[in-house]
Each structure stands twice: as structure tokens, then as C-alpha cells.
Amino acid sequence: MSLDYIAAQTFNGLASGAYYALLALGLSIIFGTLRIINFAHGAMYMLGAFGAYYGAQLLGLPFFAALIVVPIAVGILGMLLEWLILRRIARSDPIYGLLLTFALTLVIVNVMTLLAGTLGSPYSMPGALSGATNLGFTIFPTYKLFVISVSLAVCVVAWLVVDRSLLGARIRAAIENPVLVRAFGVNTPRLVTVTFGIGVAIAALAGVLAAPTTNVLPTMGDDIIIYTFAIVVIGGLGSITGSIIAGFLLGLLQAIGAVYYPPIATTLIFIVMVIVIWLRPSGLLGRPESTR
Amino acid sequence: MSPRNVLFILVALAGLVLPRLIYPVVAMDILCFALFALALDLLFGFAGLLSFGQAMFWGGSAYTTAILVQRFHVDSALAIAAAVLYATLLAGIVGLIVVRRSGIYFAMITLGIAQIEYFAAINLSSFTGGENGLPMDTRGTLFGAHVSNDVAFYFIVFAVVAICFWLVVRLTNSPFGTVLGAIRQNETRAIALGYRVNRYKLAAFTIAGALSGLAGGLYALSNRLAGLEMIDWHTSGAVVMMTVLGGSGTIVGPAIGAGVYEIINYFVSATAIGQETDLVMGLVFVVCILAFRQGIAGGVLSLWRKTST
């Protein structure tokens, strides 16, 4: 096994970790404010990819425009869903949020199947990003480097906003005590809607990024949402930093594991989840008291 | 007679005439899913633990049954027994991990663990048939006899499922069932009262796993097929929908939910929607969660109590 191969797998791992981190980040932001595990997160990722595909087919929307426009459009759809449906169960046991978003997932995925069929649609790679880049120690597809950079940038911005800005302070305060925050004059319901929209938009962004590398399919979110759940559990539910770190780390582990035993790639994340639950039930960076 | 018993008798009567009303194999599917949903109700309705990975027992046992009958020509009664043993052992092991958590975490962890079995079934394609699943030529022999008549087989399954419902009623009325209820309502207090909560959760999870396995084995025999979609998380989700739609915590509800679910599926698949029946089920379930969370049986029972007082 050459060192070159390991280096290439490391970057491949970081590239899949980039998707995991984006999805886990959005899921965490949403769980933090709404106390809902958004099962429909995979469906939103899928909608992002279809947004890019139909945008190009019907409107001639270029890839770089799709990166901005599609997440905004899906984010607006998400805000509508929150405003019309999810808000109605805000005071219930979080389990019902999971069940409700599960049902919404079935509706969204099957509507897309009726519209687009079960066969995948190809989405062409933007010319500027095709080809490979020589990193000195290895040659690597330019597009994957782009995905890693975008994901890292979004993660850093999200972390800065939640951890360092006034908006973030309000979001964190609204998690701790929504009634008190409302008493200080913050429009908590609107804050929640916007946060849900942002979380969903990040999932859609991951979907747009995925479109050129995979077949765009209605079921493309089905597997990745379960991986994302495991990653969020590993990182610690509600911990944004934990989700980002776990996302990249597990993408990396998955790729390295596949070097030694290829079939493990599909299950390694779940095996790590079991080990983490055994040793540290609240996850790597989760707070024990908030995780019952 | 209590309202719930009346409902039970009505459902049992419906079960007796079912194979005369609809295609017998669909009727058998309803029975098997009723048992599967009953297992989930024991976990979710009574212990408050929502398993979103219950298909690992249902599907795993279906494969155990199909492999033993098809490849090794084992008597189907013995194959079902082995399938239940498989599900019980698996639930015991998985339970050791998952009972450390409750609520939303429990759902997410069970979902992830079930995927391990799913991918294992894909990789062990020499045993499981991989993507094609494992069809069985016949149902094999049942205690030495051939049961190829679907209606006759229906009533054998009916008897097994009826006994399981009776057992779960007894179980939930026992002190064990009462402790499960205490854990659901306030786990911290149950711990404070000195109950070894994790042991009760593990016992509930193992029993539910065994019942799910029995249901899956029977389903494989009645359809003469074990397939990957039986381990898929969509199946875990479907049984959750049946349970909640029928009325979780009512025992009779899961049977109603399974019937309603399968019958809606049956009719919707004949329309323009075709294979995408989950579109309708998803919409029904959204309305269920928003508007009548106690489910059909829960709704009927509470209405009954209101009007009779």
C-alpha cells in the first residue's frame, strides 16, 4: 500500500466528511432551537440536489449561482414547513417531532419520485472545477478540494455566528429559557423559524455540492440521513462543535477503514456510534444533563 | 364488559372473517404486522421507548427462517423457533447498549444499529441472496405436514398472533407492566424508588425483539420470501406508523393500525400513485400526529368513556 494511496484516501475521507459536517451542523442547529430531530434533513439535501438539477435544466442556472439560490429557496420552504406544521407540536415530547418530520420525509421523497422517477439524473461538473490539482504530495480532484473548502468555510461561519454574535447569543438564550428571552423583547417564534430555515438551507447546500458527484435521485437522502444521525449522536446532540468535528472525523475514518477492509465503509460509523454510546453516553462533546 | 374488551372482540371477529374479505396473503400480512406493531407498542406505548430500528428483528428473523427452510429444509416450526431465538439474543445484546439512553437518543441509536444488520445482509449475499432477497420454493413442512393452502395457513398464524396478544395483555397488567409505566412517566423517580430501571428496559426490549422476530418469521413463511426491504428503516418506520395510528398503549390499537395501514396501501397501489403509497401514508401520519395523537383505538376508547359517564 503506497503512501500516495493513503494520502488520497485521507482527502477522500475529508471530502465525504465535508458533507457529513454540513448535514450534522444543520441538524444540530435545528435541534438546539426547536428540540426537534429533523428526519426530513436528508430530504432537504435531496431537494438541494434537485434544485440544482432543475435550475440548470429549466432556467439554465449555473452551478455557482445554484450554490446561493437553491439553499435560499429550500430554506424558505423549510421556514414555511416550520411555520405551518412543526410549530404546532412545539410543546410536545421531542419524539413527536421526529415522527412528524419522518412523515414529512415520506411525503417529500414520494412526491419527488412521482415527479422525477426512480432513475437518476446526471448533473454536469462546472468546467472551472473539473480536473485535478497537484498538491505536491498527491494529485487530487479539484472539485473535492472545493467541497472541502466550502464546507470548512460554512462550518467556521456557523460556529462564529452561534458562538460569538448577538444573534447566536439570542439563539442560545432561547434554548435555555424561551419565556425569559421573549420577556426581553426578542421575537422567539420568528427566531426559531429563521433558525430552522438556516439549518435546512445548509442541508440544501450540501445537496447542491453533491449534485455533480452523484446521480440525483429522490432517495439520495435516505442513507445519508441515518449516517448523519449517528454522527450527531457521536458528536453529542445539540453540540455544534461536536457535530462538525465528528462529521470530518468519521468521513476520514470511513475512508481509511475502507483501505483495509472495503465492506466496513458502510457500517463503520454505526460501529463507532455503539462504542461511543458505551463509553460516553452523551457523545464526545455533549453535556450529560441535557441528553436524556 | 370494559370498552377495551369489546374492541378486542370486534377486532378478533374481523380477523376471523378477514381471509374471506380480502386476498388471503394480504390478510396474513395484516396479522404479521399486527404482531410486529404489538411488539412496538409494548416498547413505545408502555415503556416509552421508541425503537426506530425494530426491523432488525423482523428482517433478521425472516432471513433466519428463509435460510433454514430453503437451504437446509428444516421444519418450519423449528425454523420459526430458531428465528425467535435469533431475535431474542440479538435484542438482548443490542438492548445492553441502547437501554443506556431514552427518548430521542434511543430512537436514533436503534436506527443506526439496525443499519449494521442491513449492510451485513447485503455483504453476506451468498446466504441472504443480497439485493434479490431470498425466495422460498415452498413453506416447507409444519410439524411434518405441508400447509400450502393460504386460508389454512392464515388460521395457524391467527392462533399464534392471538396467543401473543393475550400474553402481552397479561404482561402489561402484571407488576412488571406497572413498573414499565412508571419508567415511561418518570424515569428518574422510578430510579429513586429503587427500581433497577435499566433491567426493566432491557427485559421490555428483549421481549419486544422476540415478538418482532416471531412476526418476521411468520411473514417470511406466509410470503415465502425474505428481502432486504424487511430490514430497511422504512419498515421500522412503517411499524411505528401502524402503532401510533392504531393507538399506542392500547394493545388492541396496533392490530387496528396494521389493518388500516395495509388496506390503505392495498387500495392506493391500484391508483395512479402506484408504488409511491408512502405519499398517502405520510400525509395520513402527519394528520395523525397533529390532530389525533392517541390513535384510532385511543380515540374510540376516550370517546366511549366520555359518552358513558
Measured by DSSP, the beta-strand proportion of chain A falls in under 5%
Provide the number of structural domains of chain B.
Answer: 1
Rg over CA atoms of chain B: 19 Å
Shape of chain B: globular
| Mean pLDDT over the full residue set of chain A | 90
Question: Major β-sheet of chain B, in short?
Answer: 2 strands, antiparallel
What summary fits the major beta sheet of chain A?
2 strands, antiparallel
What spatial form of chain A do the alpha-carbon principal axes imply? Answer: globular
- Termini separation of chain A (Å)? 44 Å
Determine the oligomeric state from the structure: heterodimer
Spans where pLDDT lies below 50 across 5 or more residues of chain B: none
Structural class of chain B: mainly alpha
What are the secondary-structure elements of chain A, in order, as H or E? HHHHEEHHHHHHH
CATH class of chain B: Mainly Alpha
CATH architecture of chain B: Orthogonal Bundle
Question: How would you describe the overall organization of this protein?
Answer:
The complex is a heterodimer of chains A (292) and B (309). Chain A has a two-stranded antiparallel sheet. Chain A has helices at residues 3-34, 41-59, 63-84, 94-116, 142-164, 166-176, 178-183, 188-210, 220-235, 240-260, 268-279; strands at residues 132-134, 139-141. Chain A is an all-alpha fold. Chain B has a single domain (3-7, 24-308), classed as ABC transporter involved in vitamin B12 uptake, BtuC (Orthogonal Bundle). Chain B has a two-stranded antiparallel ribbon. In chain B, strands 2-3 form a two-stranded antiparallel ribbon. Chain B is mainly alpha-helical. The model of chain B has no long low-confidence stretch (mean pLDDT 93). Chain B is built from 14 helices and four strands. Chain B starts with a helix and ends with a helix. The chains are: A mainly alpha (292), B mainly alpha (309). Chains A and B meet through helix 4, helix 9 and helix 11 of A and helix 5, helix 11 and helix 13 of B.
